Amino acid sequence: MDRVLPKRFWTSQRIAIAVGGLAVVGLLAYNFLWADHRSKLNVEKDKITISTVSTGTFDDFIVVTGVVQPLKTIRLDAIAGGYVTEKLVEGGAMVKQGQVLLRLENQNLRLNFLQSETEANRLVNDLQNTRQRLRVERYTLQKTLSDLDFQLDKAKDAFDRQSKLYKDKAIPEQDYLTAKRDYDRLVEQRKIEVESQKYQQENSLIQIKQLEETLARTQKNVALWQQTLNNLVVKAPVSGQLSSIDIEVGSNINQGQNIGQIDDLNGFKMRVGVDEHYNNRIFAGLNGSFEYNGANHPLQITRVYPESRNGRIDVDMIFMKAAPEGLKRGQSTPIQLELGKASKATLLPVGGFFSDTGGNWVYVVDKLGNRAVKRNITLGRKNPEYFEVLTGLEPGEQVITSSYENFGDNEVLEF
C-alpha cells in the first residue's frame, strides 16, 4: 500500500535559486565594498620611463646660454646733423682713437657760425671805438677842469684884493660883492664839474663792462659754433673694432642719430638670457661658470636688465679671472648659473611629466610593479637633473617621469 511522503522544502530548484541569490549578493557586496572603481588604462611598460626617488645633494643651478660680447661698447651718435660727404672706414675695421670716420656737411651750421663770428667782430670794433671815444672825452674833461681851475685862481686873487681894499674902505661895497659872487660862482661850478666828470667816468666804465660781457658771450657762441662745425668730422672716440656703421655717402644724418658703434676689444663679458621664471632669484653678485678648452672659468653677474623680452631677462656676467684666449665676439656657450647653495633633499629626476601635471601629481609604481597610481605631490626647486621633492614621495619609491600626454585622466595605469 502506497504512503504519502512529506513534501521537502529544500528542493534542488530552491537550492539553486538560493545559491544564485547568495552569489549575486556577494558580488554586489564585493563590488560596493572592496572592488576598485578607479579609471584604469593599460600601458606598455617598455614605452615609459620609470625613475627612483632618492636622497642626495641638490645643486641649485640652471644651465643658460651666454654670448660673448666686448666688455665695453661705445655708441657713435651724431653730435651734429648733416649729409655725408665722405666715408673713410667700413664696418669691421680696426680704428685708432681720433681717427676720422666720416665727414659731414651742414650749410645752416656754417651760416650760423659766420653770423656769430661777424657779430663778435662788430662788438670788438664797438668796444674799441667806445674806449677811444671815452679816452678823448676824458682828455676834454681834464682840459675843461684845468681851464676852470685857472679861472678860479684868477677870481680868488681878485676877491682877496677886493676884500683887503674893502676893509681899508678903499673901494665901495658893490665892487667887493661883485668879486665875491664871481669867486663863489666859480667854486660852485668846479664842484659841479667834478661831480659831472665822476658820473661820466663811472658811466663810461659801465658801458665798457657791458660791452666786454656781451663780447665774451658772443665769443663763447662763436666757440660753440666752431666746435659744432668740428663735430661734422666724426672721429673714433676710442681705439677698437668698428663693428657697424650703417651710413653711406649722401645719407642725411639727424642730430643724435646712431651711426655705429666701436667695440673695445681689451676685454670680454657674457650676455646671458635667463627665463623670467627665475626673475626674483636673479641679482648682481650671483656666480656661474663654463668650460672652455678643457678648463673651468668662473663668472659673476654684474648687471641685471629690467626689461623682459620674449619671456627672458638679460644679465651681464664678467670673468672673475682673465678671459680665456680664443674667445670671439658673438660666440655662444652653455653656462652653469648658481642660484643657491647645495643642500640635502629628496630628489626626483627631471622628466616630461612636469609639462602635463605642473608638478602637482605623478604616477607612483606599486611595490609589485604591476601598476602605477596617481598621487598628489609638492615640488620645490629644480635644476637640469632633479626636482626637489617637498611632500608626497619617499626615497626608494618609483615614479613614471616620462610624458603623461597619452594617459588622459585615468587614475591607475596597469602594465
Automatic annotation (TrEMBL):
The chain crosses the membrane at residues 15-35. The keyword ATP-binding does not apply. It is found in: Cell envelope. Keywords: Coiled coil, Membrane, Transmembrane, Transmembrane helix. GO terms for molecular function: transmembrane transporter activity. It holds the Pfam family RND-MFP_C. Residues 346-403 form the Multidrug resistance protein MdtA-like C-terminal permuted SH3 domain. InterPro entries: MdtA-like_C, RND_pump_MFP, UPF0194_transport. The keyword Coiled coil applies. GO terms for cellular component: cell envelope; membrane. Residues 201-228 form a coiled coil. Belongs to the membrane fusion protein (MFP) (TC 8.A.1) family. This is Efflux RND transporter periplasmic adaptor subunit. It comes from Larkinella knui.
